Amino acid sequence: MKTGTPFCICLVCSHGGHLTEMLALMPAFEGYETFFFCYDADTTRRLGRAYLVPNRPRNPIEFARNLFRAARIMRTERPRLIVSTGAEIAIPVALVGKAFGVRLIHIECGAQVVTASVTGRVLYWLADAFFVQWPELLRVYGPHAQYRGSLIDET
């Protein structure tokens, strides 16, 4: 899909380990137009093309604001794919993206070894492709989940 029409990808993640995992994926996005949707933090301010929102997890008012922010960005950027490594910030972006007909790939955080994350439990039902980084999570999530290894090499 690298030739022909522009293919814009929205990369959604929080800071910390979720961002580290997203950055490990960056070689796969080479040649594509990308932008980030992240919480505002020191590490995310250095990303370049990024939409940064306040970090107020579990705040229903901020969640609603992020739905509207995501809708505005989806209309402006018109991504054809959303890639998520979590956490909570991915839920409003995924909901709005799916309403806009955008395909969604979610990669469950590598820190989730035997239990599902809240974000993973929501995005499992929305994602066009859902990946886990530990084979133990295949039993937790079910047949839609795929295991292809870890993003971060532990060796």
Structural class: alpha/beta
What percent of residues adopt helix (DSSP H or I)? 25-40%
| Number of DSSP helical runs | 5
CATH homologous superfamily designation: Glycogen Phosphorylase B
> Globular, elongated, flat, extended or rod-shaped: what is the shape?
globular
What proportion of the residues form beta strands (DSSP E)? 15-25%
Low-confidence stretches: none
Count of individual beta strands: 7
The tally of domains stands at: 1
Corresponding CATH architecture? 3-Layer(aba) Sandwich
Whole-Å distance between the termini?
33 Å
Radius of gyration: 15 Å
Side by side, the strands of the main sheet go: 3-2-1-4-5-6-7
Order of helices and strands: EHEEHEHEHEHE
Mean pLDDT: 93
Largest sheet: 7 strands, parallel
The CATH class designation is Alpha Beta
Query: How is the CATH topology named?
Result: Rossmann fold
